[in-house]
């Protein structure tokens, strides 16, 4: 490796070094504030190092990683989302019986794995980054070890994720047998998919890899773990799973689909389209009878990831821009929603039950307004980031003549509007007798994060042009 390679890898080196420093700091002194400070400083330095790394990009760093504008953009999104989760977590963990310091260690490891996924251009780096992310999430989901529901969620995720990993490894083996390479860019070539002895192993391998992607993104029919994990995990961890984890996996999927080119055609394209449509509709219809806000957000995430598959299947540059813009809007929206859930939670229980939100507009006006804004964005209503993002998805689907997917998107959005409005109606009701009427004392860090997220939610809904230009420049190198 050369000096330029190290410069290109600087954000990931900062994250790795910060993890080691935090580990040593915990060994010498247990202090919640110190651990949170080291984690936030690491994430901040990683963000500051991105422009420096951009001077050396685009660059192939060994056959495993490609550092380009797209990888750096996704890394920025993932690291910024993790910083928001860390600030929300500080107040949430205060006063709880679990030791808090290792939480931030696991958080940094999860961010390192998710961000490396965005730069992966080889199945070896993809697998290692995915496992680093997954193993960190196992522990984070079950971090509240004294709560049965948290441990149950962790065990479910562990078992099902292990099965998905088995599918992934078997699929990688078939791909290597068919092509003799695991580099994304070298999988398609020589007319293999037009026929020949290795056409079947190649397509079978891709199908098994798609199963792993389906699980990690909680797409139908691999979505069953999502509501239980979102409900059982701590609210900030649910936000991490919904944003950092899925953002990293979606990024590597976009890079892989861009490299495959003509392979994503015919039966495979139809199968992915059916998965997208099923995810949209199932995520919306299954959420109709839910009385837990965290489970509603889980089913909403299933539908949202189905939406994001529409432009990915289209496969042209503007479609990739639409998918990435939707990812940014989704991350901001979900972080806002889970941020409100986090600050409303107590040491006894997360604020998951719908009755916890009765009269929220009157008891805690700005939190009620933020949650309503995030729900409007998920529904795709005007003046929010979700509206502009969904508009670009529809445009990408129409341009690619995916009329049936666009129809599924519209129907799904209309159905999901019911359970979003249901939560808002509950927040507009009069508070229950004896309910707190004073404005809550929100931790300073969490309040700052929620304010910035709320501004981002509205800013992208009104003036998305700067972000779109940045995404266009980052995506241009993929195709």
Summarize the structure.
The protein is built from 19 helices and two strands. The protein has helices at residues 3-8, 10-28, 32-54, 69-93, 101-119, 123-141, 148-179, 199-216, 225-232, 235-260, 267-285, 293-314, 317-344, 360-363, 365-379, 385-399, 403-428, 444-462, 465-475, and strands at 59-61, 65-67.
Question: Total helix count?
Answer: 19
Q: State mean pLDDT (0 to 100 scale).
A: 88
How are the strands of the biggest sheet laid out side by side? 1-2
Structural class: mainly alpha
Outline the low-pLDDT stretches.
190-195
Q: Taking Cα atoms only, what radius of gyration do you get, to the nearest Å?
A: 21 Å
3D shape: globular
Helix/strand order, N-terminal first:
HHHEEHHHHHHHHHHHHHHHH
What is the straight-line distance between the termini? 26 Å
Number of strands: 2
Helix content: over 70%
Question: DSSP strand (E) fraction?
Answer: under 5%
Largest sheet: 2 strands, antiparallel
Structural commentary:
This protein has a two-stranded antiparallel ribbon with strand order 1-2. It has 19 helices and two strands. It has 479 residues and is mainly alpha-helical. The protein is 74% helix and 1% strand. The longest helix is centred in the middle third of the chain and has 32 residues.
